[in-house]
Amino acid sequence: MPTKPPLCCCDLEGVFTPEVWIAVHHATGIPELKLTTRDVKDYDELMRMRLGVLDRHGVTLGKIQEVIEGMDLLPGARAFLDRLRGAMQVVILSDTYYEFGMPFMRKLGLPTLLCHTLETDEAGRITGYHLRSRDSKREAVAAFQGLGFRVVAMGDSYNDTTMLRAADRGFLFHAPENVKKDFPDLEATDDYEVLLGKLLAAAGLAKP
Ligand SMILES: [Mg+2]
Prior knowledge:
The chain is 42% helix and 20% strand. By secondary structure, the protein is of the alpha/beta class. The longest helix is centred in the N-terminal third of the chain and has 14 residues, at 43-56. The chain is globular. Bound molecules: magnesium ion.
């Protein structure tokens, strides 16, 4: 084992699972739910819009959880994560909410998930959301480094790039072309096997 124990921070949506809001958009037919942080830069504005349209269409947390229960992991995700967890500690850092993320955690073998929380009323309407912190992925990486870990990381999108750059080594996985183009300093791959090799090498571990 290298002097500093390695820890891998992984994104969730786009690298292990499809995007939840897109799936909810398809399941409900609500056009506004197709918008992402790529279309609406201000996250609070985007979330207020999402909660507003869910409310207007009577879509409860229970309905969204039903959609999520029906979603499959990306092919190869579970096998990759099992092998990664066999080699080093893994924490999933996501900008999702526990109410959305936990069904996926059960499918992924219950890895540790650090994300945010939703507020609901007795009728199951989503009435608000609470972010633990504004730049939670990057802050988690810095905190783990402060605890003496060598941090490697992987993610697919703009909201991962501060985490990937803060990590000792960060990799883009399944990233759209525009993200790859905007962050040419981050090595990118679309293959779990290649990614596993890169993460282990970056962590100072031999591939099993
Ligand atoms: Mg993602």
